[in-house]
Structure formats: C-alpha cells, structure tokens
C-alpha cells in the first residue's frame, strides 16, 4: 500500500510491568478512567448508559491479529464499509420509530446517503489494490439491542423523538472518530486520492451531526412551547 507507516523492525513484547501484577493496584485507575469516559460522553451529548459497553465492543472489533500498519488500515477500512452497509438499516429503523415527520425524513435521507459512502469506500479499496475483509458487526448489534430496549421504556412521544435523535447522533460520533483516523492514515501513506474520498465521507457525517443538533433543538423548543401553552 505504498509508503503506509512502514515498520523497520518487529515490535517485541517486553516483560509484564509490575503495575499489572496486582488487579487491586490497577482498580483505582480503572475507576477513574471509566468515570472520566462517562463524563466525556455526557458533555458531548452522547448516551451514557451504553457508552462503556459500546466502547468495549468497538475495541473487540479490531482484536484479531494485525501484523503491519497496512493490515490495520485495510481492517479499519473494511470495518468502515461494513458499518456503512449496516447503518442503512439502522437509520431506517430509527426513522420508523420516530413519530415526527421531520425526524423521519432526516433519518431516511441519511440512510439514502449511505450508498454514496459505500461507493466511496469501494473506490478506496480499488486505489490501494486490496479487497474488503470480513468485519465484525457486534458493535452495531449491541447498539440496536440497547436502542430497542430503552425506547420501549419511554412513554411520551416527545421523549421518544428526543431519544431517537440522541441515539442517531451518538452512532454518528462513533463513525466520525473512525473516519478521522482513516483520513490521517491515508495522508501519511501518500494515498491522497484515498484521503479525498474518506474526507468527503467524514464531511457528510459532520454535516449530519450539525443537522441532528438543530433537530434536537427544534424538538425541545416545540415540545416545550406546547407544554407552556397547556
């Protein structure tokens, strides 16, 4: 894949640090890290209850052996393509669950745009001379399981509308982080054509998060106005 992050010597595993010999010594740091991650999720407007589980699943998706930076790039690109294919059905399901026509239309349009993303990723594979490899879809399956369970617990239409928008925004932020890394790797490798395609996909996702933010504000304002009038 060109000059993609060529390693000059293999990485050798060193001795196990003393800090890892005791689970009790690592526990305070783990709790502090988990608390920091949850606080960050709250500040960014993402869901909180499912954040640790989803982040764990995302790490597991690239847990298979990767020997070179090129293999890592191909795996990440394959995961991105799989996520794009699966996201079409996810956004369709989110749209069907929404009772607000504006939200339904926005999410259906997002599902439609996914076809463009898939074509762009296929072109990336052509440019680097590789084929997509098998990807793990557990992250999105967990996302849907949590979404269905939590949506069933919400009673009022206004709260359901807000919840759907928040979940859509949450899912998109996960994808944005994925594409930021892919764009950087493509640029370092010298595959600027691949970088252009990936950055166009990233721009679509950033635009959607802004649109979702406006819909969240509109939903809050409209529902609040109804409550005041009552």
Describe the fold and architecture.
With 230 residues, this protein is mostly helical. It contains seven helices and no strands. Helix 2 packs antiparallel against helix 5. The longest helix is centred in the last third of the chain and has 38 residues. The N terminus is likely disordered.
Number of helices: 7
Q: What are the segments in which pLDDT stays under 50 over at least 5 consecutive residues?
A: 1-13, 16-48, 57-62
Shape verdict: elongated
**What is the radius of gyration computed over CA atoms, rounded to a whole number of angstroms?**
20 Å
* Helix content estimate: over 70%
Kindly state the mean pLDDT as a whole number?
A: 75
**Biggest pleated sheet:** none
Q: Please report the distance between the alpha carbons of the first and last residues.
A: 63 Å
Look at the helices and sheets and give the structural class. Answer: mainly alpha
Order of helices and strands: HHHHHHH
Beta-strand fraction estimate: under 5%
**Beta strand count:** 0
Task: Give short descriptive properties of this protein.
single chain; 230 residues; mainly alpha; 7 helices; disordered N terminus
Topology:
Elements: H1 23-43, H2 51-60, H3 69-97, H4 101-128, H5 138-152, H6 157-189, H7 192-229
Helix pairs in contact: 2-5, 3-4, 3-6, 4-7, 6-7
Please sum up the structure shown:
With 230 residues, this protein is mostly helical. It has helices at residues 23-43, 51-60, 69-97, 101-128, 138-152, 157-189, 192-229.
């Amino acid at each position: 894949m060109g000059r993609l992050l060529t390693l000059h010597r293999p990485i050798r595993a060193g001795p196990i640090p003393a800090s890892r010999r005791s689970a009790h010594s690592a526990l305070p740091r783990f709790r502090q890290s988990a608390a920091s991650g949850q606080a960050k999720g709250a500040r960014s407007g993402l869901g909180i209850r499912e954040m640790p589980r989803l982040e764990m699943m995302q790490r597991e998706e690239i847990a298979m052996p990767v020997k070179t930076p090129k293999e890592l790039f191909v795996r990440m690109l394959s995961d991105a393509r799989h996520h794009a294919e699966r996201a079409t059905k996810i956004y369709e399901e989110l749209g069907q669950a929404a009772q607000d026509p504006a939200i339904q239309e926005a999410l259906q349009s997002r599902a439609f745009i996914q076809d463009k993303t898939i074509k762009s990723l296929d072109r990336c594979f052509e440019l680097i001379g590789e084929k997509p490899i098998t990807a793990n879809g557990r992250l999105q399956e967990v996302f849907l399981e949590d979404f269905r369970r939590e949506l069933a617990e919400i009673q009022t239409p206004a709260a359901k509308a807000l919840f759907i928008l928040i979940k859509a925004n949450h899912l998109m932020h996960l994808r944005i982080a994925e594409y930021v890394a892919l764009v950087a790797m493509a640029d370092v490798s010298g595959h600027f054509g691949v970088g252009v395609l990936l950055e166009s996909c990233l721009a679509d996702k950033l635009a959607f998060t802004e649109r979702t933010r406006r819909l969240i504000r509109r939903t809050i304002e409209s529902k609040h106005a109804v409550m005041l009038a009552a």
